[in-house]
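Running this now, will post back.
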Amino acid sequence: MHMQFTRTQIMILGGVALAIALFIGIFVYLIPSLQQGNSEEPATKITLTIWGIEDPSNFSTLTSQYTLEHPNVVLRYTQVPEDRYDRTILNAMATNTGPDILMVHRSWVQRYSDKIMAADYPQIQPSELKALFPDVVARDFVYLDYVFALPLYIDTPALLYNKTLFNNKGVAVAPTTWGDVKTLVPYFTEFTASKQLKKSAIAIGGSGKSIEHAPDILSLLMLQFGAQRLEVTGQRATFDASAKNALDFYTQFSTPNTPYYTWSDAFANADNAFGAEDTAMTFGYARDIKQLVQKNPYLNFGIYPMPQNDLSNPVNYADYWGLAVSAKSVDIAQAWRFVIAATTDPKLATLYATRSNNPPALRTLINDSLRNPSISVFARQALTARAPFQYDNVSYRTALSRSIESVLTGQFQSQSALDKAAAEINSQY
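Update: finished.
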């Protein structure tokens, strides 16, 4: 006997069947995905290796917190000495034994662009960087309209001055402009009976032989004096009339018989002279302070903003490292996920900044750092920091140091010295 269904009964039965089918679909597809957790999390444990120049303790709390939140990610950090870091990284990548994540200098992105993998647009886009970090980061770490690295911190040189010497000379405040610096030179410079330097006002004007940061200070002066096209990525180095004026200004402090002669490569090492109170002022990065204090625990010094050419348009100099992802990483997506979290998550970025005592790169943390006397000056300066394009930062600095030395020894006039430096720099790429 055949059972007859009314139209209403058929519709009800169809609805029940559809509901059952939907329930089965949910059970089959949704429940397993819930069991696996967030689809962005790796399904099984993976190990990501990190290589960098910094002490492992700078990363310890950061990596511990990240693995606590992402239990299937194991992070292993290895420190490589800075003086052989670049070579070690390149050799390891050539033999497929390199890290998943690596620290890169701000100048390395173009040179490393075939060895590191840019972030996908859904992860982070170039347009987001200026909201997250000071402007210099987008200039350094965006290449071909992709983000290739992100900064852990931003360091800038500042003026270090001896408070005791300033008090003894009746000088109440540190200089804010280069004009102020020149005014103070006679107060602190002393000569022997034979006209040799005995005391220096400021460690400036020498080459890298006596002043470690000489190329950076000269580069900063070029930017402050308005030298053009120094920051264009891929631009071949050219030093214009403003760059020449910066070199002339810089070397006058190490040129005998000028009114502002106060330094010589033969006088002393800048760090040692400042520690021994043989010079009243010098320049240093935030990273230099710890060693300065360790070597000279009783030195009474202050940290002051970098002197400016134009106070209404401050320009500072950026030197820093970031994190990038190797193109041969075992899991590029997870490696980038860590890099983005470590540098843009305020909680994780704070863990790194607290342990390293480096000035933070994240804008939201810069204001918080203004209450920290050891890094407040450096943190504030990051907002106006700039830096020239450098295909190879070591070669760039070496060439500028040679240009300073060749002017001081009379081997070349300033423009010729800079033209020779440009040729050396451009031969690297």
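The first strand starts at residue 46 and ends at 52. More later if anyone needs it.
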